[in-house]
Hints:
Elements: E1 2-6, H1 13-27, E2 31-35, H2 37-47, H3 54-62, H4 65-71, E3 76-80, H5 87-95, E4 100-104, H6 111-118, E5 124-128, H7 131-137, E6 140-141, E7 162-167, H8 172-179, E8 188-191, E9 207-208, H9 217-222, E10 224-229, H10 242-249, E11 254-257, H11 260-266, E12 272-273, H12 276-287, H13 290-304, H14 309-328
Parallel strand pairs: 1-2, 1-3, 3-4, 4-5, 5-6, 7-8, 7-10, 8-9, 10-11, 11-12
Helix pairs in contact: 1-14, 2-3, 10-13
Amino acid sequence: MKVTLVWGSSAWSIRDVTTGLRSALLRAGHEVRDYRLDNRLELMRRAFPAEMQETEVCRMASENVLAEATYHQADLVLIVSGVLFHEAGLWLLQHYRLPTAVVMTESPYSDQEQRRWIYRYPHVTVFTQERTSAAREGWFYLPAAYDVDVHRPVAPSVAEASDVLLVGTGFEERQRLLEAVDWTGINFRLQGYWPAITADSRIFQFHVPGCVNNGELPPIYAATKIALNPYRDGDGAESLNPRAYELAACGVFQVSSYRRECEDVFGDAIPMYRSAEELETLIRYYLAHPDERQTKADAARMIVQGQTFDQRVDDIMTVLAPHALVAAG
């Protein structure tokens, strides 16, 4: 199958989903042509006056998707995320009956915006990484995944050793949580984009500025004793995020905030907390019990086997066969 892959607009987490799906599509024997929405947005912002509205920039970056897909005789246009992909591109794809699917990566946090963006385009098959949103909106549930090319046990980066590690984005609720923990005697390492951390924050001393490419994370993960996975607050959110799969695939022990799907999938292989006090208790307990950490990390790695982007591509194609491609014919 010839697939035009519309990249997400973000340089970080959404890109990891894009590259994971892209590699899996190629391994499955599909021909992939990239539509780099991120690059096109940057080009349009540079080429046109700063006072031009962002919606116009998005429209110009998106509407050429029809020409690209037609030129390459695409059988499918697969859009990752859809954030900043202008609905003019959807209209053109629908008008010319090109089979189209989108993987919503921002559920349930942005479901209202995603719903408004998609509701007039019934030809688009919608997948979401959140099972609550799938049930509520009638979309197809496509769980997160790990990349077999990236996420596997590796030798640790000795220079980046830590007791506790979190690599992620500094959402307000995450920062409040971490600031409520007593980190005395704990070698805590905090990486990622945390714009609200100032010098008077209790976690300022632990923050290593700068984002980290996903491909560089396994040795950093391997160098920690406990990896944290605090979820964002969300409207009924239940599902696992990519970090849960990635850490498990790397064979790293993790502690998670409560998620129903984490309990359903991993059982007690991933300890969960509901408050800063519970988090601190879990951290200090498992730092003192390395054998238990290893047992749970090994169990989580076994559980997550097969939860890869290759499986997700198979899932996408299984759904599209009767719903999108046949209908478009």
